[in-house]
Design brief:
263 residues, membrane, cell membrane, Branched-chain amino acid transport system permease protein
Length: 263
């Protein structure tokens, strides 16, 4: 029974990462009706940014916040520069754009930081959580950060003017434009938020899988699967699907780091 409980809790912790990735995928899909094949690489590059900042002496949480801001701005810039001109282009043109973005980001990360595996610190530690051997402090931290993120997004989309405008722009863009909502910029904000959410997934999973340019490949695949299972039109269905599915199946995207207490 203890082993079963341990596996379920470990699955929920891993599912928290899939939930963040699935949420990022869904947000961009709602904005432009396309799956972002470069979502994992964007998260990986942001994680490298935070790692580099820490190498320069910046504290973990300061690097975390700076990386979120960088990711948000970078997401908006990618949408404005690359995908806004493709808004009326054929589907395959957009797919080619995503594949090109994937290759550019992956190669750039390898060129800047090389392809050797690097250790990434965890702010939570790897000791047993509250003295229990069933879950580590890093696992508990992953779950806590994801729950806090989902609650923050829920209140943002339900009770803020910008959140409501983004929902309207995604659901009924023609009607939203008629009432004065700048749907183009709402899409850009969606890209920025999705990129920032993806970076959170990267920074949380990096202590487990180690940091290298291909670290997010498996996570993105399961994020896609969770997004489809939970509903590409449901920002909160996808994360719930990811956590539930991972808890039941206990799927791990890549071999677990021996230095962590994730398994």
């Amino acid at each position: 029974m203890e082993l079963f409980t341990n596996q379920v809790l470990a699955g929920i912790a891993t599912g928290a990462i899939y939930a963040c990735m699935a949420l990022a995928v869904v947000m961009i899909y709602q904005a432009i009706d396309h799956l972002n094949f470069a979502q994992g690489e964007m998260a990986m590059f942001s994680t490298f940014i935070s790692w580099q900042l820490m190498q320069w002496g910046v504290s973990y949480w300061a690097a975390f916040l700076i990386t979120l801001a960088f990711s948000f701005v970078a997401g908006i810039a990618i949408e404005r520069i690359l995908f806004k001109p493709l808004v009326k282009a054929p589907v395959l043109t957009n797919v080619a754009g995503f594949i090109a973005l994937f290759a550019i980001i992956n190669s750039s990360a390898g060129l800047i930081w090389d392809f050797t595996i690097k250790q990434y610190p965890t702010p939570f530690g790897s000791a047993p959580f509250l003295g229990s051997q069933l879950i580590s402090t890093h696992q508990a931290g992953m779950i806590g950060v994801t729950v806090a993120l989902l609650l923050a997004l829920y209140f943002f989309f339900q009770y803020t003017r910008i959140g409501l405008a983004m929902r309207a722009a995604a659901s009924v863009p023609e009607s939203a434009r008629l009432v004065g909502i700048n749907t183009s910029w709402m899409i850009a904000l969606g890209w920025g938020m999705a990129t920032a959410i993806g970076s959170i997934a990267g920074m949380l999973i990096a202590p487990v899988v180690f940091l290298e340019p291909n670290m997010m490949g498996g996570v993105l695949i399961y994020g896609f699967a969770a997004a489809v299972l939970g509903g590409l039109s449901s920002p909160f269905g996808a994360p719930w699907s990811a956590a539930s599915w991972s808890a039941c199946s206990r799927i791990s995207p890549v071999p677990t780091s021996p230095a962590s207490a994730m398994s």
